[in-house]
Each structure stands twice: as structure tokens, then as C-alpha cells.
Amino acid sequence: MKNFYISKTRRLRSTPFTKKIEEQGVKSYTVYNHMLLPTTFSNVDEEYLHLKKDVQVWDVSVQREIEISGKDAHLLVQLMTCRDLSKTKVGNCYYVPLIDPNGGMVNDPLIYKLEDNIWRVCIADSDVLLYAKGIAAGKNLNVKIFEANIDTMAVQGPKSFKLMEEIFGNEITKLKFFKYSFYKFQNKKFLISRSGFSKQGGYEIHVDNIKAGLELYDHLFEIGKKYNIKPGAPNQAERIEGGLLSYGNDMLISDNPFECGFEKLVHLNSDVDILGKNSLKKIWDKGI
Amino acid sequence: MKNFYISKTRRLRSTPFTKKIEEQGVKSYTVYNHMLLPTTFSNVDEEYLHLKKDVQVWDVSVQREIEISGKDAHLLVQLMTCRDLSKTKVGNCYYVPLIDPNGGMVNDPLIYKLEDNIWRVCIADSDVLLYAKGIAAGKNLNVKIFEANIDTMAVQGPKSFKLMEEIFGNEITKLKFFKYSFYKFQNKKFLISRSGFSKQGGYEIHVDNIKAGLELYDHLFEIGKKYNIKPGAPNQAERIEGGLLSYGNDMLISDNPFECGFEKLVHLNSDVDILGKNSLKKIWDKGI
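Output (C-alpha cells, whole complex):
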């Protein structure tokens, strides 16, 4: 297959890590949420094998975080998803299909419940910010919605646990899958979740202080030498093998959550208010 | 500056013209509305000079068209923009700033009024589909909203007029700026507007029949030989020189339409219903 260059303009936003990643020899990018996502450093087959064996750091700042806060925040997040959020807890991440009023997939974010009325919606490649703003305006909800200044490093691979333990202490090894907590590096606090777009295990470090984040980035590579650490990126073969779906690749707004295999995340019998509820009921009754 | 490759996946949608454009030697792409936009064939300086002298065909299918129809279509389009649409006419295109409830720029599309209650919103790089769906759901509007299967070729440059006249007849030379009409090629009807993202003049051909569109594409290059026709792309230097703004490059959701120089398109004294009206009034009263 022929290779093509990417034309960089301001519209394709860089991340705080772009400069370092280019020094580390990134070869190619894709674009995701109007931002650069590194895709290869050597070649995808080598990177696949390395990811399954050692540890990689990925710049996944493209997973933009839409913060929704205010009196009606829970209501708004619930309106957008077919998953019942009534029993959700602070400290957890939830994988939720976002749907439109026709039951079509809008996005499949991981959402972080920070407080009862503060959520971060960590999005796949579509402008959830605009969808949320539209609903809030239409329904006159009391919410604040904005894209947070957060950039994310994923530390993925079997050796990610030892590496993170060396940096953040034994506490972090106790963090369970799809939980998050706060950890300190050089006296700066980071929100870290046990999550990531691979099946090899690892963490995502959500950076709101760029200076501290860049220092941590360097420190990861310094300490990680003994674990054969390398810069990397979400690997198509690995994530497909692991059953992870990708919005835009495997599902579109023309697909409903049943077609995507999300049946267990569609709670039509709960009494929570979901925008696409009636549409999904009709789809379910007709058979998929 | 170092060059980087683009990683093509299904998520970065191709267009019906991609295959032809790659045969014609496209070198680089950008991504716009989750789709590939060709950016260079030779080099941007040569292409700049050629655009100002001859004629180019651009694959600008990335200008996705969001169709909004139904009883409340006019109301919904008006809610999204600060420009008063009450006197708009079928057959015209309108450049309208779309704004969020805080007065921030959501997009700057050209909108086509097809019928009183059928609009096509020809968008810059943000998911207006989701914004419109959100508002419609929140307000319970009677509308149908979808991304139309339309792909656009722009024919731009001083020799575009002679070329298009040869293909579509003398009628098309009478089409005025920001008007559209329907023209036939090989008995297939095309919506063609006098518009385009350059200051050199030209047309945009909105293709809803891919087979006919591909035949027209080849025909343009066949007939265009004598006009020194070349494939091309929106040229950053030319559009900046011409004062054309680019959403994502020159404006973001954090900018209001006054800051973008759209004062003449902000109609706060009309009695039409605009979502961001109060916010824009406050911004105006405080001074920008």
C-alpha cells in the first residue's frame, strides 16, 4: 500500500507530548478528536510483540475529557446513555454507549464519576461536547460543559505494574480494573485509572499539570529502561484480538448498541430517563 | 520540518474520488470531519500559482452535508445561528456562524435552503450533526436530521467558468455568487453552487449519484486539458490572503463571532429565537 504524508496545521492539535514523541522517532499519525494520535514508531508487528511482553507509554491525549458538572450533571449524562447510572459510585470508571434519540451510537466513552455531580466523559472520536451542549440547551439544564485541559499517557503492557509500583509505590498495585485514584509524583497529584485500550493491562495517567506531566513522562522512560520500555500506540491487531471496539472503525451512528454487542449495557427496564429509550425498545421488540 | 505519514484506517473515511486522486499522485492528506482531505499533489507554492492562473478540481467531500428537514427545520437551523434567517430564500447559500448557548463558535457552514423546511448545512470540521440532534431531542422538535450521502467536487480558478460553460452550457455562467441551481450532465442532474473555499472564483458540484459523479470527474479533466486543469486542494496561503477563515485553525468554540469578525452576521435585535442570544448580548454590552 502506498504511503501518504499528513499535512500538519493548527487545526490538527498537537499534545504536550508531541515534541518528545517526535524526538523519540514517531513515524506516523492518525487524527482523532481533531488531534494528533501517534500510530507507529518502528512497525506495527514489532510493536504488537513488544506490547505483549514489556511495557509501552502511549500519548493518548486524543481521548479528550468532556467535563459535565452542576445540579443536572447526572441527569444529562444519563440522558445520553442506555446504561443505568443510578447505582454508580465515585472512584469508578464506566464504559457506556452514548446513543442518539434514534438509538444510534454517538460514542463509546469511559466515564469517570468524580463527584455526584461532576463527571468526566473520556471520549472516542466524535464531538460529544456538542451533543451534550445541544441537549442541555434544549432542556434548559443547569450544567457546565467544557473540554477539560487534560492530556493522557497510557502505560500498557505486562511490565506496566512493576514500573508504576516503582514510581508511585505499592498502593497503586491495589487499584482494581476500572477504578481510579490520586497518586503523587514529585509532590504533584495525578488522577490515575486502571484502564487502557489494550488487553495487556496497565494504567492511564490523566495529566492536568503539563510541566509535571512532562517530567513524569521522562521519569517513566528513565525508570522503565530495565523493563525495556518503548513509546507506542494503540495497536489495531492487539485491540481487535482483545475484542476492543473502535468508534468509527467498528461502529457508526447508523449502528445501535445491540448490533455492537452491548446488550448487557442497555437497561430499558430501569426507570431512568434515557433519550433513545423508546427507539431502543422498538428495535428490541422488532428483533435486531 | 520533518514529514510524518498518515495511518489510514476505516475510521478516516475515504471519498468516492480517493482512488482517482491517488492515481493522480496525491502526496498528502489532512483529516476533516473524520474523512480524508487531499492537501498536496506537487507542492503548495506551485499549486498556489496554478490556482490563481488556471483551473483546479478539488475533492472536498469532507464538507459533509447535514440535512435538516421537517416542520421545525427552519426553527432548528435558526436556533443554532446568530444570523437572522427569516428572509432567506430557496436557491441561495448563506454563510452562517453556528454558536453554542454561551456564544462560542460551533462551526461556520454554508447553508443551502432547498425548500422552506429542507436545509443542507455544509459543515466545517466539527460534528454539527450531534449538536443539531441534541437540541432537537432536548426541545422535542419535529425534524429529521442526517448526514446526506453527498460528496463535493470544487472547480476553482479563473478558467473554471469557461470549463464549466463547455460542460453545462451557457446557463451556468449566469449563476450568481452564493446561488445554486440544478444542471445536467449526461442526463444526470447535479446541484451546483457558485461557491468554494478560494477567492479565485468557481463552483462546487454536489454529487449524490456516485457513478455519474465519477464520470463527470473524468470529463472535467478531459475537457479541462486545454485550460491546463490539475487536481488540487484548498490552499492555505491563498485562502488566508483572500480572508477566508478556517474553523479549528482561526477560530474555536472559545471564540465568539465578534472576535471572528462576523459582526455583520450577528442579528441580536431581530425577534428570531437564537440559543446564544442572551450570551451574545452580554458579550456585546461588555465590549469585546
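Chain B touches chain A through 49 residues (CB under 8 Å).
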